[in-house]
Amino acid sequence: MCRISNFNLKTITFKILFIFIISIITLSCKSAKTNKAITKTISSPLYDNQFTGIMVLDPETNDTIYKHQAEKYFIPASNTKIATLFSALTLLKDSVPAFYYEKLEDTLIIKGIGNPTFLHPYFKDSTALKWAANYKHVKIIKNTFADDKFGPGWAWEDYDTYYSPERTSFPMYGNVLSLSNTNKLDVNPEYFKDSVFQKTKKISRLYNKNIFYYDTTKTRAVEIPIVFDSLTTKNLWKDVLPGKVSFTNTAFTSTPEIAYSIPSDSLYTRMMHKSDNFLAEQMLVMASSTISDTLNTALVRNYILDDYLNDLKQKPRWVDGSGLSRYNLFSPLSFVQILSKLYATIPRERLLSFFPVGGQSGTLKNWYAGNPEPYIYAKSGTVGNNYCLSGFLITKSGKTLIFSFMNNHYRTPTTEVKKRMQQIFEYLRDSY
User: Cα–Cα distance between 423 and 432 in angstroms, integer?
Assistant: First the structure.
């Protein structure tokens, strides 16, 4: 039998207590040093004419490493996509829901669920077409989308730009016309090949009509949003399913089932890395289908805020899935809290894979490179005079920190703002 004397036990206890006290003192000194260094940086005149909010958290200890105006509201731009990612990971399954369906003898009845991957230029999902091949008739239940085609606060003059496609219940081709001109003019979908004209105007499409303009002297590929009125929708479907498709206002006769397509993670990664507004918006549309028969993004945003993010210290003003709207308002603390929830529930490797990597991928390919290993995994957000970055920072000591760094209403070049942020990130990487 092994016995430990009272003397030895007291000695061991004292050593543990001593190490604990030293660790607390060391951590306190390190935090104080970090606080002082970052405060000195953001106290420079360069920050005088802008609004800046910073929050840095150690998720292992739940210690706040640094904060500055972290509880203030900022325009987040595409940082909003972090809340969208949280919603999708919370409500959607491992595969993307393709459509609702019901089988009636030789007829397949389908209804849109918001799936953005159907015939998308990148994903090329053809689940609906493969299913339709087994039926003589395909009936499509007409649009049940309860939102406007554009989000609140979107800039109206962006109607013909690639980053502002319409939101719909059953997207096709990413809701854009893809044009390129290598050996010849390629038009996808081909249905619009006679609607493309030589560009003589600044616009790429008429305001509310599918008449497109492309400079055929260039080879650059472009994407132009399609106007999805009822006639265009019918014609596109009849183009891919000739002689089979019809549209109906009739509802399903029984509870419909759901068909699934590609792995959800591939959608999330593409949305985050490319900061794809269309994918983000449609992810919220799909998520809304899990809580209601009506496709309505306001329903799902409110549901997430009330049921899953009700402990946020500042309730965000959250109006769209992409961050295109300047009506969105989030605080750095809110983003850190959302990221902390993800960090606690999603395996680390999988979670980090969703985020652009500094110096390597996505919107961070040209910024925040490691030396030599990457150390920033984060989502950027940019609209005029605003730049935000929120995500994860890996220190040289091996710690993972969660941060949100938000800059609003500056007049200096965004490049200069990024340089200043990088100085702070590198200090955290090397010193903490």
Answer: 14
Identify the CA nearest to 431 among candidates 358, 353, 355, 375.
375
Number of Cβ within 10 Å of residue 98's Cβ equals 25
* Averaged pLDDT of the chain: 93
- List, for residues 117-166, the tens digit of each pLDDT value: 999 999 999 999 999 999 999 999 987 889 999 999 999 999 999 999 99
Number of C-alpha atoms within 13 angstroms, CB side, residue 26?
Answer: 8
Question: Using CA atoms, how far apart are residues 269 and 253, in angstroms rounded to an integer?
Answer: 37
> What is the distance in angstroms between the CA of the first residue and the CA of the last residue of the chain?
45
Sequence letter at residue 229: D
Residue whose C-alpha is closest to residue 250's, from 101, 131, 139, 100: 139
The pTM (predicted TM-score) of the whole model is 0.92
- Which ranges of 62-146 does DSSP label H, i.e. alpha helix? 80-91, 127-132
Buried b (16+ CB within 10 A) or exposed e, 328-338: bbbbbbbbbbb
d(CA 207, CA 227) in angstroms, rounded, equals 9
Give the type of residue at 348: R
Residues contacting residue 61 through CB under 8 Å, at least 6 positions apart: 27
CATH class, 39-85+292-431 region: alpha beta
Q: Which of 255, 228, 238, 242 is nearest to 111 (CA)?
A: 255
The most distant pair of C-alpha atoms in the chain lies apart, rounded to whole Å, by 94
Q: In 10 A of CB 150, how many CB atoms?
A: 20
Q: What is the pLDDT of residues 173-218, one digit of tens each?
A: 999 999 999 888 999 999 999 999 999 889 999 999 999 999 998 8
The identity of residue 1, as a single letter, is M
Collapse the DSSP code of 390 into the 3-class scheme (helix H, G, I; strand E, B; otherwise coil) and give the result: strand
Domain with CATH 3.40.710.10 in the chain: 39-85+292-431
Residue with tokens 């890395």: 273
Structure tokens at 112: 């849109």
**Among 118, 164, 170, CA closest to 143:** 170
Please list, in sequence order, all residues whose beta carbon lies within 8 angstroms of the beta carbon of residue 299, skipping any fewer than 6 positions away. Answer: 288, 291, 292
Helix, strand, or coil here: 110?
Answer: strand
